Amino acid sequence: MAALLCKLGRFAHRRRYLVVLLWISLLTLGGAAAAQAPAAGPTSFAMPGTESQRAYDLIDRRFEGQRADGAAARVVFKAPEGSRITDPALRDVVADTVDELAAGPEVAQVADPFEVKAVSADESAAYAQVTYEVSGAELSEQSRRALSDTMAKASRSGMTVEAGGTALKGERGSHAAEVIGLGVAAVVLLLTLGSLLAAGLPLITALMGVGIGVCSITALASTFELDSTTSVLAMMLGLAVGIDYALFIVSRYRSELADGRLPEDAAGRALGTAGSTVIFAGLTVVIALAGLAVVDIPLLTKMGVAAAGTVVLAVLVALTLVPALLGVAGGRIKAPRTRNKPEDPESTDGSRTRRASNVGGRWASFVTRRPVAVLVAGASVLCMLAVPAASMQLGLPDEGSQPVTSTQRKAYDLISENFGPGFNGPLLAIADTQGSDDPKQAVGELTTVMKDIDGVATVSPPRFNNAGDTAMITVIPASRPGSAETEAVVHAIRDAGGDVMNDGGGRLMVSGSTAMNVDVSQKLNDALLPYLALVVGLAFLLLILVFRSLAVPLKAALGFLLSVAASLGAVVAVFQWGWLSSLLGVTDPGPVMSMMPIFMVGIVFGLAMDYEVFLVTRIREAYVNGRTAHDAITAGFRHSARVVTAAALIMMAVFAGFMGADEQMVKTIGFGLAVAVFIDAFIVRMTLVPAVLALMGDKAWWLPRRLDSVLPQLDVEGDGLRVEEEREELAARVRSTHS
């Protein structure tokens, strides 16, 4: 592999303008395709295999003209201080508003609060439920504007009028924090590479890959029903890994220049060594993202595959466009300035080793001299950070996590204060009585049982379909939608109500957005261990090929598990327990977003393996070239610690930029990934890895002979390049002797 990549690097460097032109052409074609592509249609949020989805499907079949996933808006009216919503003047305004809402486009029906008794006990507030004929994704902007205009008109009466529900779009936060993150990345690149041109090259190539990836996703969005979140995830990961992969190549290129190689040879050598690292690091990320398919949530699968495609683009850009641009830059990309350092006396094996001449080398020397103490200290810190993860509660965000300035959050708070928190997340019980001898009696018994369940506030009268074989019952829990208490209510209704219906020949299903969130959280939780086993198992096999070792891949996997546990503990401490919540802008601590653990496992595993492969490959390269096990650790850190540190800081800056968003869900993702990168890069890879390798010595690189003979020789360290160079030098001496 090293020889093949070396030829590719030399070709790209030699044919640089052709390669650059090809990538610019791809970007142009992608942009044209995205511009001409039809607008993305509605995104299906189907959850196959869940009870909530089966209930939605049953409603669509049994209740003619009603869509289970139809958009909804809850318009809340709050009377001015000292007034009541039942005062004639305010009551007339509410009635007129209900009529205007009912006349709006795509509206199916509006429930008058005075007819359905949706008025608070003190008569200070009321709410009107608006349902639409189409889903929230399909709802037109005209319908949204009509809702907004009607609310604005009603508020002129002096009432507070707010609305929540799927008919409203969430507010988008400012992108200033993301821009700051990119600015920090640029500064880190400048400090690492010491040149504006060298620092700008990874940014340019990363943006090129991300641009093509996002354009491709936009062009295919309508065909594959991809939503905007897919593009955001692809952009975030593509940018982070694109910068890192280009940094690896550029750094190795400058190192080869420092060793006296000509630019074309340096490009080939850089790709033959660091390029192999980029390929295998990229493969681990792709495995982690594509593995999201095991969760069996279509939306999550599409997001993972799209992001994996962007990572593949980042790898291809690093392997072709980066050496081409290095050729375009020519002599302006220079070798790093180095000082002449004295060499140590010969080591016991006859090799000569340089002193640990930089911070990375000195740190590795410190760790290898005290491996037990460092290992115990590092592992203790990770275990302490992981403690909160044992009490993690999962849930999906509701409108209570919206920015406090949004109308959705204001409506949510008004409902909670005047009616009770459970009114923000009503449950929809679906009684299928098709096999029952007396459907009305069975549903009546079911209603009585549900009223007696702890945590249930109210149960509405059942509403049968035209055939009389299916009933819908609205159940209001006493607790907020995303709480553990509400989840317990969902399970209690399913258990108790199911017994009643089964005895009568029917069945009960609980649905609604709150029950759907419970089912999704359970599905994600159940899929976490199989997903973890899949990505870790495949990556373990891949790392055996890379490192020709059993111990090193095992160490990498165990270190990753410690990283994830500690990172999840930090997330729980901040977003569930509320530690440092005011400092980080967390306004409403609660359950951790249910997608967070599986996202963190997938994304962080891929990124962690980047550092593992790049760092340990340099150590193994020194080892196979004759260094002792301890000297190889110091040599590897001297060459790679600075680059790995810069790569981690860049990723932390990119991810931390999302902490400036208004939505708590985005904050959680940004914080979790930034903390995970910090823990994995600086505690696990830069501290525990050298300590473990120092303790194991030569045994770290042991591989059974039978297995070694079966595995293909990939030559990731570029040992074949060194042999080829020695052969060429010998041939040159022979030719000079004969001449």
Overall description:
With 739 residues, this protein is an alpha+beta fold. It is 63% helix and 8% strand. The chain has helices at residues 2-14, 16-36, 51-62, 88-102, 141-155, 176-193, 196-224, 228-258, 263-290, 298-329, 359-369, 371-386, 407-418, 439-451, 484-503, 513-547, 551-576, 581-584, 596-624, 629-656, 664-696, 705-710, 719-738, and strands at residues 70-78, 107-111, 125-135, 160-164, 394-395, 427-432, 456-459, 463-464, 470-477, 507-511, 592-593. Strands 6, 7, 8, 9 and 10 form a five-stranded antiparallel β-sheet that branches. Strands 2-3-1-4 form a four-stranded antiparallel β-sheet, with helices on both faces. A two-stranded parallel ribbon has the order 5-11. The longest helix is centred in the C-terminal third of the chain and has 35 residues, at 513-547.
What are the defining features of this structure?
5-stranded antiparallel β-sheet, single chain, alpha+beta, 4-stranded antiparallel β-sheet, about 750 residues
